[in-house]
Design goal:
four-stranded parallel β-sheet; about 425 residues; 15 helices; Polyamine Oxidase, Chain A, domain 2; FAD/NAD(P)-binding domain; alpha+beta; 3 domains; seven-stranded mixed β-sheet; single chain
Length: about 425
């Protein structure tokens, strides 16, 4: 039997595709509901996803599964940036027109005089692409907020096609006049009409069995057995895991110290979510936005009610703020302290005033994203080799320990049918 640990999108996909291919499986999720980072929660009629979540997959298989799961809205991926009191269309490098003349001159001069080199880290890569001033005030500042690390401390094995890299003519045009074109790397964003982002998984989830409240506490690889917190045990012929690697190795009986130490070398961000429901329908102006000012703790804000009108009661609207921390950058505050900070800064950003607030919720997510620091590749290689030797398959963002979007995580689970 295939025993799958973790009922997020990768685990759901693994179970669905194993069943589809006539393979026996058991899927165990430690939480009370399935979905992982694709799950959601509701407070007073307001539905909030865990983080922003919009689908822009171009993979035909994933698009088909999603479209068979739920009706969906299609959004223009128009995002904005908040920077020193100004709202700038995203990506900022293509839309500099709201900035002062002095700042535009500095950005353009530095872009013209940017270094030509073979970058060895993310900061050097940014300088090669954009020059000094833009790098320091935009992506480097955002890196400290979102990735919780300095750009020089990150590698380059995650960047891919996530940036618009304009020519000088594009930067000049965007500095002189507002651009009608959208230079974002995705052409459209899709989101379920009802049920939150999780509804995109309904086609798969409706056809499989999912055991919730089943947290693994010990993996005995000699006897091919997993023990759970409820006292039960399950035998397996193959173990498939989307459990975060640092947590997974701690579960393995007699795991070598060198592997446990490699797990300690891996870093992930944790997310602090402040979700706000408003008593007015017109609070959100943008689908989502990036926040560069470092005295404002959240890195991003998005609107669930703009993603779908069914995410808020009629006549109301919502926003969710994402703040990140890690061992590189501990929490600046939490709970009531962070909600008070966001209310104060939200008013300063002219997003809302306190009397507009209907409900407010604070919660934390331990694993939000993988940090691509310089220790990552070696530590992941050591752990993956160890797991392969034990016959344990790893899937998903935190099993592969990679920057996987939801469609890539689904495909990671789907690929389990091809593993030996």
């Amino acid at each position: 039997m295939n025993l799958i640990l973790g009922g997020g999108i990768a685990g759901i996909s693994a179970a669905y595709h194993l069943q589809k291919n006539g393979k026996a499986y058991k899927l165990c999720e430690k939480n009370h509901s399935w979905g992982g980072l694709c799950d959601n929660f509701t407070i007073s009629g307001f539905l909030f996803d865990y983080f922003v979540h919009l689908s822009f997959t171009t993979n035909d298989c994933v698009k088909e599964l999603f479209s068979q799961s739920t009706p969906f809205y299609t959004h223009n991926p128009l995002a904005y940036n908040y920077y020193k009191g100004k709202w700038i269309k995203h990506p900022a490098q293509n839309n500099l027109s709201p900035l002062s003349t002095d700042e535009k001159i500095r950005i353009i001069q530095d872009f013209i005089n940017k270094p030509v080199s073979n970058p060895q880290n993310y900061e050097e890569w940014l300088l090669v692409q954009f020059g000094d001033y833009f790098t320091n005030n935009f992506p480097s500042a955002y890196t400290r907020k979102y990735w919780t690390a300095n750009a020089k401390d990150l590698g380059l094995d995650w960047v891919g096609e996530r940036f618009s890299l304009p020519e000088l003519s594009d930067i000049l045009r965007g500095a002189f006049e507002e651009q009608a074109d959208n230079f974002y790397y995705a052409k459209e964003m899709r989101y379920p009409v009802k049920g939150g982002y999780k509804a995109f998984l309904n086609k798969m989830a409706d056809q499989i069995d999912i055991s919730v409240n089943k947290e693994a506490v010990l993996i005995d690889t000699d006897n091919k057995q997993v023990e759970f917190s409820d006292g039960t045990k399950e035998y397996y012929t193959r173990l498939v895991s989307s459990v975060p690697l640092p947590e997974l190795v701690k579960l393995i009986k007699d795991c070598p110290a060198s592997i446990l130490d490699a797990g300690k070398e891996l870093t992930a961000t944790s997310g602090q979510l402040v979700s706000i429901g408003f008593n007015r329908p017109d609070i959100p102006q943008y689908l989502w936005a990036y926040i560069y000012d470092e005295d404002i703790f959240p890195a991003r804000v998005y609107s669930p009610s703009l993603k779908s009108k069914h995410n808020a009661p009629e006549g109301k609207s919502s926003l969710q703020f994402e703040t990140y921390c890690s061992k590189y950058s501990p929490k600046k505050c939490n709970g009531d302290g962070l909600t008070s900070h966001i209310i104060e800064k939200g008013e300063r950003m002219n997003l809302f005033v306190q009397k507009d607030i209907d409900v407010i919720d604070y919660r934390e997510v331990k694993y939000a994203n993988v940090v691509f620091d310089h220790k990552r590749q070696k530590a992941v290689s050591v752990i993956h080799t160890y797991l392969q030797n034990l016959g344990i398959n790893y899937i998903g963002r935190f099993g592969e320990w990679d920057y996987l979007w939801s469609d890539q995580s689904l495909l990671s689970g789907m690929d389990i049918i091809n593993y030996k």
